Amino acid sequence: MNTTNSPDTPCYPLIGISACSQHSDGEHPIFTFGEKYSRAVSEGAGGLPVAIPALGAGLPLQQLVERLDGLLLTGSPSNIEPHHYRDEGSEPGTAHDPKRDATTLPLIRAAVAAGVPVLGICRGFQEMNVAMGGTLYQKLHTTGRFREHREDKTTTLDQRYTTGHDIRIQPGGRLAQIWPQSETVYVNSLHEQGVRDLAPGLRVEAVAEDGLVEAFSLIDAPAFTLAVQWHPEWQWHPCHDVGDFPFYRALLGAFGEACAQRARARGVSRQANGMASPQ
Ligand SMILES: N[C@@H](CCC(=O)NCCCC(=O)O)C(=O)O
């Protein structure tokens, strides 16, 4: 990213990154996301990353989405509370993050309606389905219908984020446009939950060999709206020599281009109103 300011400095799209709610030192409530997500936004999508704290109803959503050029929904070990998709309670001890749910679910609906490009990753993928009215399997491995989609926690981080399974990209969709090179692609897999019923208005973009939905888009969304169950942001993990994943780069690149388009459009309309272009 060019960090100098001159009249020729490009206008980087402002991309919000959803944060989780946690406690630092067990006492202070904090909002967090991994550095790899920030780098995926700045280096992969060419955007200016900004944190979206999990403030729930305390966030003026309409004002927020009007300022954003993109929204990246991160992964998280925590699971969406099942009442959001009309299911019974989860097993005792399941990690949840009600503050994040209260933020991301309405934020997704507001962003889609405002034409903000959205990319959902893993928990973010599941949030997009739930926000639009879909449901989840709480534990894929207990259904007897699917292969193992969880990571092997006894292996190294590199192994966990490079081991997975093939997906099949559906012809004619958004993902096939982004990645026309091959219909089958190998992706990582680190989740226990998955799509049960796809929300109305969503289109399957990729499936695993066992039939599980691995990617979807919104059919009538005014802007780029894609969600993936795997972790393309691994490409930008700062602490590891992760190698090169052209498929992951292509995904973030396409998202970044959609965000840049929105930034340009917002700049044009500001000039038309006699306002300065966004910096
Ligand atoms: N908890 C959900 C979603 C899994 C997920 O998003 N994992 C991410 C792990 C941390 C990271 O890489 O950001 C499930 O288990 O299905």
TrEMBL record:
Protein name, entry field: Gamma-glutamyl-gamma-aminobutyrate hydrolase family protein
UniProt keyword annotation of Hydrolase present: yes
PROSITE patterns documented for this protein: GATASE_TYPE_1
Pfam families: Peptidase_C26 (PF07722)
Origin: domain of life: Bacteria
InterPro entries in the record: Class_I_gatase-like, Peptidase_C26, PuuD-like
Compositional bias annotation for Basic and acidic residues: 81-100
